[in-house]
Amino acid sequence: xxxxxxxxxxxxxxxxxxxxxxxxxxxxxxxxxxxxxxxxxxxxxxxxxxxxxxxxxxxxxxxxxxxxxxxxxxxxxxxxxxxxxxxxxxxxxxxxxxxxxxxxxxxxxxxxxxxxxxxxxxxxxxxxxxxxxxxxxxxxxxxxxxxxxxxxxxxxxxxxxxxxxxxxxxxxxxxxxxxxxxxxxxxxxxxxxxxxxxxxxxxxxxxxxxxxxxxxxxxxxxxxxxxxxxxxxxxxxxxxxx
Length: 242
Prior knowledge:
The chain is α/β, with parallel strands linked by helices.
């Protein structure tokens, strides 16, 4: 865990200031708190110079493998498809896989949200993980791709659900990193063409279009859950489940 530093003031960025996607170092954490909500579920708060990063941590703190989840442009700890991120965290905890659900400091800010995701990866690495899969929904798909590119050496895979195409250009750098793109065929928010554009950047990616499913994938929640329950552990183990 990040060491606590009580009493230090958290200063904000200037309005036009940008921030490099460099994880915990970029956050400049001044103070942190954590509490065990119940066995196997921790709530972490990291106070940095530009806001509060929240992480819900399922599973062992010293897990050798981990998953980081990233919500959409307005943020989400639960995820799409009927609280998919929570459900996956519960399932994977029983398998000894840690899941870190990220609550952004500034939802909708791609640079800062990427920093938040990379910081969560760094937390898992600090605790002993050596392979991490990053999952993102909608805007969070771009966050996941960018975070994996920043921590390429530790990235075991990327899952982008109903992703946007903007900001996913670093997918070109992820050759050899397993990637799963899932999109609803009836998505009225972001067309499946967005995922197809990402696959053009990363031709090795697996693209799964689910007919009659919308942006939130609620109609196919169980199918998506089952697919990720096999795909992600296989990616963490360095094998394909195809």
